[in-house]
Design a protein that fits this description.
Elements: E1 4-5, E2 8-9, E3 13-17, E4 22-26, E5 40-45, E6 48-53, E7 60-66, E8 71-78, E9 86-90, E10 93-97, E11 106-111, E12 116-122, E13 130-134, E14 137-141, E15 146-151, E16 156-161, E17 168-169, E18 172-176, E19 179-183, E20 186-187, E21 207-211, H1 212-215, H2 225-231, E22 245-251, E23 257-263, H3 264-278, E24 285-294, E25 297-306
Antiparallel strand pairs: 1-2, 3-4, 5-6, 6-7, 7-8, 9-10, 10-11, 11-12, 13-14, 14-15, 15-16, 17-20, 18-19, 19-21, 22-23, 24-25
Length: 307
């Protein structure tokens, strides 16, 4: 979404299909003006993509793009300027934090259900870094040999030492199986101006990784009594709902139906995963062990159901 090409700042939206390994253009961003790459942010929540952009003044306009209706919708604006900042999604809410502007750093959170922006504690100066959601926290990578950990509940920031981190900015990062990957970027500098220009130093092409388990980042998302009380009312926590067998019928997007003879426990596990995926959380696939009774005994047939 957006960015800058050889022709200058663009408002184009391009979509990548990993199954077909193809790119295609979608509807352009609905901005009145073109927005520089360091003044635009986007995150996915459920079936919508939320875009925050500073078009021409000291406030940001917020838009949502519905992936099903293919329509843009203008949302509540944010009266705060963050350039070169970072965003992440926790509990279906969008957080914007960090940045390079001289004004006091504040963390803001957007609630898509209420269509409201609200302060969520003090931020910190961290321009052109990268933010990721992990165990109910937001990890900020870049700039120093530490990973900053922001807790939305306590509205506090702590830091853990990462001996593998390089002093870099404008990089990308990702988490796979509790391993953090930091990709590319450029040497830490105050801005993209001056003799550095827009180009990264040729020395920084590496991909570094570190086990997040080794950093001992605590998770309170599954430890609080309130969370346990909520889960105790779901079918997966009800022992009486785990007994017996069931037929799971999955209707694919092309209309094809697949049937799986499973136990109720397995069905409840699938339903729990499906709800998480609909909320934009959890793994992108679910593996099913289908049990079919034959003359030779129990036969397992594995299949994938993707959403």
């Amino acid at each position: 979404m957006g960015g800058r090409s050889n022709d200058g700042v663009v408002k184009t939206v391009e979509v990548y299909d990993p199954k077909k390994d193809t790119w295609e253009k979608s509807d352009d961003l609905p901005f009145e003006n073109k927005v520089s790459p360091y003044r635009i942010y986007a995150e996915a929540i459920g079936k919508k993509i939320y875009v925050v952009a500073y078009e021409n003044s000291r406030y940001a306009t917020t838009y949502s793009y519905d992936l099903e209706t293919k329509k843009w919708d203008k949302k509540q604006k944010l009266n705060y300027e963050v350039t070169g900042g970072s965003t992440a999604v926790i509990d279906n809410k969008l957080y914007i934090l960090g940045g390079t502007h001289y004004i006091p750093q504040i963390v803001y959170v957007y609630d898509p259900e209420k269509d409201t922006w609200a302060e969520n504690g003090k931020g910190f100066k961290a321009g052109y870094y990268s933010a990721l959601a992990y165990k109910g926290k937001i990890l900020m990578t870049g700039g120093v040999s530490r990973i900053r950990v922001y807790d939305p509940k306590s509205q506090s920031v702590t830091a853990v030492t990462n001996p593998k981190a390089l002093y870099r900015m404008a990089h990308s990062s990702a988490i796979i199986d509790d391993t953090l990957y930091v990709i590319g970027g450029r040497e830490e500098n105050s801005s993209f101006g001056g003799s550095f220009g827009d180009n990264a130093n040729s020395n920084i092409k590496s991909v570094i990784s570190i086990s997040l388990k080794d950093l001992n980042i605590p998770s309170d998302s599954e430890e609080t009594p309130g969370d346990k009380d909520k889960e105790s009312t779901t079918p997966s926590e009800d022992n009486s709902a785990e007994d017996g067998d069931a037929l799971l019928v999955v209707t694919m997007v092309n209309g094809l139906q697949k049937e799986y003879q499973l136990s109720m426990k397995e069905v409840n596990g699938f339903l729990k995963w499906y709800k998480q995926r609909d909320a934009g959380e959890g793994p992108g696939f679910y593996e099913i062990d289908e049990h079919e009774q034959t003359t030779k005994g129990l036969l397992k047939v594995k299949g994938l159901c993707c959403v």
